Amino acid sequence: MTNRTLVMEFSLMEFSNTRELRVLHTFLFLLIYLETLVGNLLIITVVTLNQALHTPMYFFLKNLSFLDACFISTTVPNFILNSLSHRSIISLPGCVLQVLLMIHFAGSELFILTAMSYDRYVAICHPLRYEVIMNWAVCVQMAAASWLMGGIFGALYTAETFSLSFCGSRHLPHFFCHVPSLLKISCSQTHIIINVSLVLGLLFGIFCLSCIGFSYICIFNTVLRMPVSQGWSKAFSTCLPHLIVVSTFFLTGATAYLKPVPDYPHILDFVASVFYCVVPPSLNPIIYSLRNKEIKEALCKILWRVYQYRSHVKKSNSILR
């Protein structure tokens, strides 16, 4: 009877064996990671503190920002530590946890993006019924369903992936535990169960993409019939950032998971993995903060309040002295 857990750790792909290049790309990854964390946490803080932003649109944006911060934290910190220590190894439990969290956060983000497109559809195509349709109970239920579905897919994929036997090569051609790469090095002869799960995941992805596409077809059809150009500007200012985020998320995800895993990894495979794990979470706060007037105004108000508070504290301290 074959032991199904002979491999207790996996070796991950390294960017370079040269110390200078390794330090350089580690520093770049650290900068991107800090920018992503600060940007997404800033959006969460601004939306939470500003009462004017307590709307369904920004409620979903806050969920998206939290998911992005969690998603990038699943892979990048471990990669940075491995690069600095020159030891690209991950244990089997660590790999299991990484797959579980990545699929969970990616799946939840997919459903949140779908909910955001539905919110924009109702706001533009049915503005008079918006508050009735998108009430807080519905928004909370949609967000909870997104997290729940992501968790179900994460648990399903993780359980089925690590039910396979890993008794051969332990070298993964990626810098994180990538499900297609794990299947590549598995010595199990049949992958029927995991293939069924992949098909289900692909069908759900197509379903969400179809819902988003249908929402925006209706949105653009409604917007183009508006006689006032100001209405166009307001509609596109809220829809274009979401479209950019959706396109980036789907394109990078499709490249990472549908692309065949090579026997001998190339630098382009590493770049594709980086784009999937790093680009969407790091771009989202930039896209929403730079293109969203309400976010910028709310941020300016918060900074002004902080400045006034610090000035007041300095005056009080000077008087006491």
Automatic annotation (TrEMBL):
This protein's name: Olfactory receptor
Coiled-coil blocks: none
Alphabetized InterPro entries for the sequence: GPCR_Rhodpsn, GPCR_Rhodpsn_7TM, Olfact_rcpt, Olfactory_GPCR
Species name: Echinops telfairi (Lesser hedgehog tenrec)
Gene3D superfamilies in the record: Rhodopsin 7-helix transmembrane proteins
Pfam families: 7tm_4
Domain of life: Eukaryota
Annotated transmembrane regions: 23-47, 89-112, 133-156, 192-219, 240-258, 270-290
CDD domains linked to this entry: 7tmA_OR14-like (cd15227)
UniProt membrane topology term: Multi-pass membrane protein
Family, similarity comment: Belongs to the G-protein coupled receptor 1 family.
Key words, A-Z: Cell membrane, G-protein coupled receptor, Membrane, Olfaction, Receptor, Sensory transduction, Transducer, Transmembrane, Transmembrane helix
The G-protein coupled receptors family 1 profile domain, residue ranges: 39-288
Keyword Zinc: no
Localisation per UniProt entry: Cell membrane
PROSITE patterns per UniProt: G_PROTEIN_RECEP_F1_1 (PS00237), G_PROTEIN_RECEP_F1_2 (PS50262)
